[in-house]
């Protein structure tokens, strides 16, 4: 059937329940899933396992909406050959979403006797990008920082460098090679929590002098995908693995974090990028980088080294929630370091059903608790905007009262214990079709924005809130966002009451949903982010920085990664939906988008 909306006419299929989050197991749901049942991707989308070997889950699991890459080459009139859709470790960045609907019915699996030869053939011929073998260019030497003079360490919030934009917009941004370089310390060992890995590429990002230092990869892979990951690491004996065990309601594993151990101390990095080249090339990504944490004196009490934001104990509790014996040593090491200089709050999600005081440990109720305890009401509070920016969207229900404008809005509008809970303007920043079409990557950028038609058609009411991706202030208008941010911003868009950078997209799975007459909350995925509150910086609000780049060490403004105020979609624009075709206009590489 077809359905009209203010964002265009879509052809849609009847499928799925109202809520795309997998239901809590009932009596008949203990059966094993069918062999071809779609898996869930990084932020929860249902996807089918591809035939190509995968290095991680995000794109591998998301790349199954179609069996072939849905890019057709408009400039090539010869056969309408569709290139095989590849996995994200090859740079095809098909990632990130919550609670998506199952992919179209997958093709039959090949017979077991045919599986290995076909996989090998695909692997041998896989191009590094849907644009061809020569898409990725080596960055020139002056692309990278040689010192820390241009770094603003007040907020310690940084964007990733982007290839293909003017140099000034990368001055003060960070590339993974810089993060792992001697600029930040003499690296001894590292722990990489992530969802998608390209191990050979990752190893190359370490400088030669650190390239053989021990690395632990924390992952959630199982069975065949785990075997492929282990196979990929065989040439690198310094790499070990930590597999996160699964509980029934888990729909997304291991969020993105680095624990870096130096001769000089220890550092935490919480980021939005996968460990694949595509995520560090032409996307807008962000990270928080901690100060260098020194070791505590021998014999220090267990409570030593805590920050005013309780970051140390919150980080330890988050790591313990993984229930992984391999992380025990990391946990003990962190206890031996001084984290007192931390000025951000940790906001995590871990899967489970929580009651009583535990309800406020994770997800949006954790955010609500911190906003209640550490912020104060502001003048004209009812006019302050709640702004969320994300790269995918889960099922919100048939109308806004089901979750978004109910419990989630109550959290986002909390300012102090006595703050008013008035109806507020909600501004949702999510790329339009035109944003994707004209991006640096073109339509393939939409592989990292997997909002499906099956979900979208059930919540057309949501799209009236959408605003496009425009980031002239950071030079990243054409670098599609994989970053996720939430904030409370003043009516004139010059002040922030708080700011959050996180892995959590707009979904109940990521943030949690109340159950049993609000006496229980269920969270379905691991998420991780950091919350900036003005009180931790001895400020009443954060001023919004007008000149983010080139970065200045003396700047006091907060570097919001996109333009304020956001621009509402025009009457002709529609949100990017990744599993419908776009053939009316080619993208920046002359391609159109044709899902199978």
TrEMBL record:
Question: Where located?
Answer: Cytoplasm; Nucleus
The positions flagged as active site in the entry are 482 (proton donor/acceptor)
Q: Where is the composition biased (Basic and acidic residues)?
A: 39-48, 106-127
Question: What molecular function does GO assign, one term?
Answer: 3'-tyrosyl-DNA phosphodiesterase activity
Q: Its Gene Ontology biological processes?
A: single strand break repair
Entry binding sites for substrate? 256, 484
- Which proteins does it associate with, and in what oligomeric form? Monomer.
Could you tell me what this protein is called? Tyrosyl-DNA phosphodiesterase 1
Q: What gene is this protein a product of?
A: tdp1
């Amino acid at each position: 059937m077809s359905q009209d909306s203010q964002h265009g006419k879509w052809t849609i299929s009847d499928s799925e329940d109202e809520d795309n989050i997998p239901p809590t197991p009932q009596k008949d749901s203990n059966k094993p899933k069918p062999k071809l049942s779609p898996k869930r991707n990084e932020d929860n989308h249902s996807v089918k396992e591809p035939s190509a070997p995968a290095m991680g889950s995000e794109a591998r699991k998301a790349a199954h909406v179609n069996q072939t890459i849905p890019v057709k080459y408009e400039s090539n009139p010869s056969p309408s050959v569709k290139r095989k859709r590849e996995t994200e470790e090859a740079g095809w960045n098909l990632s990130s979403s919550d609670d998506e609907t199952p992919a179209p019915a997958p093709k039959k699996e090949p017979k077991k006797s045919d599986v290995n030869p076909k996989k090998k053939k695909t692997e041998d011929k896989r191009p590094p990008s849907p644009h061809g073998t020569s898409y990725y260019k080596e960055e020139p030497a002056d692309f990278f920082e040689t010192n820390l003079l241009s770094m603003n360490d007040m907020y310690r919030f940084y964007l990733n460098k982007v290839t293909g934009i003017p140099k000034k917009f990368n001055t003060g941004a960070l590339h993974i090679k810089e993060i792992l370089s001697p600029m930040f310390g003499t690296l001894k060992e590292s722990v990489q929590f992530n969802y998608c890995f390209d191990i050979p590429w990752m190893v190359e990002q370490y400088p030669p002098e650190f390239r053989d230092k021990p690395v632990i990869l924390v992952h959630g892979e199982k069975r065949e995908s785990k075997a492929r990951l282990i196979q990929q690491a065989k040439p690198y004996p310094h790499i070990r693995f930590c597999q996160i065990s699964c509980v029934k309601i888990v729909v997304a594993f291991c969020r993105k974090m680095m624990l870096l151990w130096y001769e000089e101390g220890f550092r935490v990095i919480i980021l939005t990028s996968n460990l694949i080249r595509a995520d560090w090339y032409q996307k807008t990504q962000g990270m928080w980088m901690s100060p260098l944490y020194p070791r505590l004196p021998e014999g220090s009490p267990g409570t030593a080294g805590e920050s005013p934001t309780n970051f140390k104990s919150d980080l330890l509790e988050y790591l313990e929630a993984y229930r992984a014996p391999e992380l025990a040593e990391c946990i003990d090491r962190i206890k031996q370091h001084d984290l007192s200089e931390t000025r951000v709050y940790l906001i995590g999600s871990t899967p489970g059903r929580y009651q009583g005081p535990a309800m406020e440990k994770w997800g949006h109720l954790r955010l609500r608790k911190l906003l209640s305890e550490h912020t104060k009401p502001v003048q004209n509070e009812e006019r302050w905007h709640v702004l969320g920016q994300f790269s995918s969207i889960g099922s919100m229900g048939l109308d806004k009262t089901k979750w978004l404008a109910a419990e989630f809005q109550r959290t986002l509008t909390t300012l102090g214990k006595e703050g008013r809970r008035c109806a507020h303007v909600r501004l949702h920043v999510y790329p339009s079709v035109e944003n994707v079409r004209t991006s640096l990557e073109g339509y393939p950028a939409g592989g990292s924005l997997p909002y499906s038609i099956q979900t979208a058609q059930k919540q057309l009411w949501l799209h009236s809130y959408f605003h496009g991706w425009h980031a002239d202030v950071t030079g990243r208008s054409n670098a599609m966002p994989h970053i996720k941010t939430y904030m409370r911003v003043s009516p004139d868009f010059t002040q922030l009451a708080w700011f959050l950078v996180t892995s959590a997209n707009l979904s109940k799975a990521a943030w949690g949903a109340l159950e049993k007459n609000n006496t229980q909350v269920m969270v379905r995925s691991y998420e991780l982010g950091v919350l900036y509150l003005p009180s931790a910086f001895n400020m009443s609000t954060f001023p919004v920085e007008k000149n983010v780049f080139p970065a200045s060490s003396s700047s006091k403004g907060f570097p919001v990664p996109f333009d304020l105020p956001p621009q509402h979609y025009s009457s002709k624009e529609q949100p990017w939906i990744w599993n419908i075709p776009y053939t009316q206009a080619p993208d920046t590489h002359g391609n159109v988008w044709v899902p199978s």
